[in-house]
Design goal:
This protein has 3 helices and 11 strands. With about 170 residues, the protein is mainly beta.
């Protein structure tokens, strides 16, 4: 799938299905499913990504200072589920799932070529945020607009990375 560079304003919807791809210092590619991704700023363009420190990719991103955010199509469900359930610590996920990739243009990380949108990112700052859970104040005063439910066995992210995306958003047309 050919990707084209664009200067489109970055607008990520809350809790998108996201795959973060990265490369370690030895050149090994890895990817993981990330549940916490959001816009942090439009000028400069910045996004936040939450990666739990226990995840294998956490140290790779921290060490390399870069990665790619990939937004998969619905047809990528099998690969998405695999990347979200296996660890690159134990196996080469790219080889096992036959993940198609190419080198990113601006960062030293792989772009998943079957994903229609990929955002190349450099780490600007990182913080340890602790457990991210809402505090219930008063049930009678809550007027929910959306219903949320936690379906995964993994605790919410405890590490937030603030990232500066290049002023370029590769998109597939």
């Amino acid at each position: 799938m050919k990707k084209l560079a664009s200067n489109t304003v970055l607008c990520i919807q809350p809790l998108p299905q996201t795959i973060v791809s990265c490369r370690d210092k030895d050149g090994k590619n890895n990817a993981l499913v990330v549940g916490f991704v959001a816009n942090a700023s439009l000028d400069p363009v910045m996004v936040m990504v939450g990666i739990t420190p226990a995840r294998y990719s956490h140290h790779i991103v921290k060490e390399s200072g870069c990665f790619v955010i990939n937004f998969p199509k619905k047809s990528y469900k099998k690969e998405y589920n695999y990347l979200g359930s296996a660890s690159g610590r134990d196996e080469d996920k790219f080889a096992k799932a036959d993940i198609k990739w190419e080198d990113a243009t601006y960062v030293d990380a792989p772009i998943l070529t079957d994903c229609p949108v990929s955002i190349e990112c450099s780490v600007v700052d990182s913080i340890v945020s602790g457990l991210v859970l809402p505090k219930q104040q008063c049930v009678s005063s809550i007027n929910p607009v959306m219903k949320w439910r936690w379906t995964g066995p993994v605790a919410p992210s405890t590490f937030m990375m603030r990232l500066q995306a290049k002023y370029h958003l590769p998109i597939c047309l």
